[in-house]
Amino acid sequence: MITAFIILVIFAVLASAYAYGKGDGSLARGFAIARKTFIGIAPLLLVAFIMAGFIQVVIPPELIRSWLGQESGLKGILIGSIGGALLPGGPYVAFPIIASIFQAGAGMGTAVAFVAGWAMWGIANIPFELAMIGHRFMFLRLALVLIIPPAAGFMANLFF
Amino acid sequence: MKNTIIIMAGVTIILAAVGVIQQGPEVIVQGCMAGGAMLIRVVPLLIAALILAGMIQVVISRETINKWLGREAGIKGVILGGIAGALIPGGPYVFYPIAASFLLSGAEIGTVVAFVVAKNLWSLSRLPMEVALLGPRLTVIRFIATLIFPILVGVLGNAFFVKYGDRVRAQIREIQKADEES
Questions:
Q1: Do B51 and A140 count as a contact with CB atoms less than 8 A apart?
Q2: For residues B43 and A18, is the Cβ–Cβ distance under 8 A?
Q3: Distance from CA of A159 to the nearest CA of B (A)
Q4: A–B: how many Cβ contacts below 8 A?
Q5: CB A73 within 8 A of CB A158
Q6: Residues B55-95: tens digit of each pLDDT
Q7: Are the beta carbons of B133 and A22 separated by less than 8 Å?
Q8: Tens digit of pLDDT for each residue in B127-158?
Q9: Which of residues 94 through 133 in chain A touch B, CB cutoff 8 A?
Q10: How far is A24 from A20, CA to CA, in rounded Å?
Q11: Chain B: residue nearest A49 by CA?
Q12: DSSP of chain A, one letter per residue?
């Protein structure tokens, strides 16, 4: 989190310095856009975080862990993709759970489908996607990534 | 904008109802607390991300975006979008405003889809954590099995959804302007 913040601040400072260097009011306009966006999305954002909080509280990780057990093969890939999609939270939450499922004996394809399902179909991203870029983008993205988790799991099983 | 809030509030209420039935009424407090705690933690990241997104819109000229990330850039734009996704750290509250700013600056829809998908599949800042928690073998196999997809979805997006991209842009403008109308 701290690393991410530092890197983002460096990017933001570089971009701001460049805007200042242009000397045509770009810096002020950039800040104005940032402020306007923040005010515009603030109510959405508030709802998004409460929704994300409820996703975290209502879908307990143990449920997904017990549900998966030792599935492997094609069934494991499909269940892994869906289980990954239902995992709440960021990598700090998701990876330990996936690790415990992998150590419990799930196949390589299942584990890869799990990571890809979390990354591609993850419900944790949806509130922010709706709030900041809208449902049109979300539907297009979901349609385009639909095949990825099972395909990645299948490839992992095939080659490894 | 209004509809989005209503839908999200509806889903939240359904989740809360399921939680109350399963675990009792204290879920309501827990859910709000979990969301609030997350919000407080990410506010600094969010502000840095929004400033970066704002500067991207004023600093990078339409010509530059067109040349590097726009339609004329073709597959080069998709690849650059993917690399940008791999480099940007932070969660969805960081990369979605940046993705929106790319689109408003004239980046092609496939490029921006590649950016978002690469953020989730190529993310460099996530790799150390993945290696630490899932082990190097699973991480490498996962990385190889998903390597091609950001480029693939970007190319597909540019091939079939360029018109739809204008509708996506219209919606982003609507979201960001909501405060002026109310």
A1: no
A2: no
A3: 9
A4: 282
A5: no
A6: 988 887 777 877 788 877 889 999 999 999 998 888 898 89
A7: no
A8: 888 888 888 899 999 999 999 999 999 999 99
A9: 95-96, 98-99, 102, 108, 111-112, 115-116, 119-120, 122, 124-125, 127-133
A10: 8
A11: B35
A12: -HHHHHHHHHHHHHHHHHHHHH-SSHHHHHHHHHHHHHHHHHHHHHHHHHHHHHHHHHS-HHHHHHHHTT--HHHHHHHHHHHHHH--SSHHHHHHHHHHHHHTT--HHHHHHHHHHHHHH-TTTHHHHHHHT-HHHHHHHHHHHTTHHHHHHHHHHHH-
Name B8's Cβ contacts closer than 8 Å, sequence gap at least 6: A44, A47, A48, A51, A127, A130, A131
Please give the full DSSP string across A57-101, using - where no structure is assigned: HHS-HHHHHHHHTT--HHHHHHHHHHHHHH--SSHHHHHHHHHHH
Residue B107, both tokens: 């980046």
User: Inter-chain contact B59–A26, Cβ cutoff 8 Å?
Assistant: yes
Give the type of residue at A113: A
ipTM for the complex shown: 0.83
What tokens were used for B180?
């002026």
Instruction: Give the integer Cα–Cα distance in Å for B157 and B77.
Output: 12
- A138 touches A130 (CB < 8 A): yes
Alpha-carbon distance B61 to nearest alpha carbon in chain A (angstroms): 11
Does A75 contact B at CB distance below 8 Å? Answer: no
Q: How far is CA A9 from CA A25, A125, B48, in A?
A: 21, 22, 6
Q: Rounded distance, CA B106 to CA B101, Å?
A: 9
